[in-house]
Amino acid sequence: MRMPEPDRETLANRQTIAAELRRIVPGDGVIVDEDALRPFETDGLTAYRTLPLIVVLPETVEQVAAVLKYCHQNSVKVVPRGAGTSLSGGALPLADGVLLSLTKFKQILELDYENRCARVQPGVTNLAISQAVDADGYYYAPDPSSQIACTIGGNVAENAGGVHCLKYGLTTNNLLGLELVTIEGEIIRIGGKHLDSGGYDLLGLLTGSEGMLGVVTEVTVRLLPKPECARALLVGFNSSEAGGDCVAAIIAAGIIPGGMEMMDHPAINAAEDFVNAGYPRDAQALLIIELDGPEAEVDYLIEEVSRIARENGASSIRISESEQERLTFWAGRKAAFPAVGRISPDYYCMDGTIPRAKLPLVLSRMREMSDKYGLRVANVFHAGDGNLHPLIMYDANVPGELDRAEDFGNDILKLCVEVGGVLTGEHGVGVEKRDLMGEMFTDEDMAQQQRVKCAFDPKALLNPGKVFPTLHRCAELGRMHIRQGQIPFPDIPRF
């Protein structure tokens, strides 16, 4: 993985750039000391790190706008950053770029229960929103495993998901409005408290744009009333294939659980050692299925799901009998990533999405890859929507193991595309999957996507080096071909 070569002129002007930025963000808001820069050198993709040129921590929207305007006028690259939990390298800094950290934007601005929404700043953590409205009987649905740390601004950038997104949708399905600052320093608002906006779906375009189109400074999210009843089932199977068949059968029956997660044998035991959630240690696959709604409906669906599970060879079924037991069932799944960290010096967390029906095939092929590369893999994933999170275990201190882990991960992602899936479900492309974009998109596809970036960021200053294997100059993408002196479509007005 290579990043763009640093611009020598920008490196030489570091002190001047820092001085100008201090005029905009006074006090301790501009960091240039090497030791102080060190905490920002990486994100959740910790195998890669680079010291940023400068870190800026603005406190107001006006400061964000002024910083971006200065960087645009002086052709200085900018990497927006939230909590730095990105697992695809989306917040990796650049040696010749300003790292624009939004960590000081951490206020919940408004809780509007009449319109069932909340206005929050981008530095508010995902979990903090649900905690703020819990006493009033509401919550925010998307709940990534890192929700205690990840921020809502980063969730917007990556279109984050979570265990309850099968029924309630990803970040994009739970957003109502954004305040955005463009690279030119213009402050704009898109959407609002209303359910939908006229015109182009710019809100959908910006969600998941990985900090390449603008900097989000305010988010309006949808709040949902907590369901009357929620219960969870732990269903064990003697094979991952049987678990996958059960997932497909539940969805085929027209049942959409609040969440449906799957863990394989290594992940089950790692999580059980870590949390003591009561998982069946002898199971080769475990489904955690949550059903919510009116109590009578939940009782009926539990019977239906139990029947389907037995028909698909379930070796054990356990149903939560209290709210605390339901939360305990989920605690192990939420802690699966750190739990695997206890049984391996390092692990590489993947993210790809496949059609549900292909789950047994993909799990079987991954076992073959595990043997091929000589590396263990624990599988934890959102089974209901086919979003896989294989955790490839390796030791970075052993020469060549990181390279093997990355090759293993690349093969998994290629397999996802091969069976009709996509490269990412919720972690984004970043730098991790950047060089695999050609597996999924043609050159024409990527050129069209880059034209969208050109409309927002013509100088390619926002988060360069991410998403696109080769970022073309906007002039190159937009140039007109004239043949024998005739321009194409001469009747179209040109400005």
Automatic annotation (TrEMBL):
Pfam family, one: FAD_binding_4
Record's keyword terms, sorted: FAD, Flavoprotein, Oxidoreductase
Cofactor: FAD
Keyword Oxidoreductase in annotation: yes
Gene3D superfamilies, per the entry: 3.30.465.10, 3.30.70.2740, Vanillyl-alcohol Oxidase, Chain A, domain 4
UniProt xrefs under InterPro entries: FAD-bd_oxidored_4_C, FAD-bd_PCMH, FAD-bd_PCMH-like_sf, FAD-bd_PCMH_sub2, FAD-linked_Oxase-like_C, FAD-linked_OxidoTrans_Type4, Oxid_FAD_bind_N, Vanillyl_alc_oxidase_C-sub2
PROSITE patterns: FAD_PCMH (PS51387)
Residues annotated as domain FAD-binding PCMH-type: 48-226
Official protein name in the record: Glycolate oxidase
Phylogenetic placement of the source organism: Bacteria, Pseudomonadati, Pseudomonadota, Alphaproteobacteria, Rhodospirillales
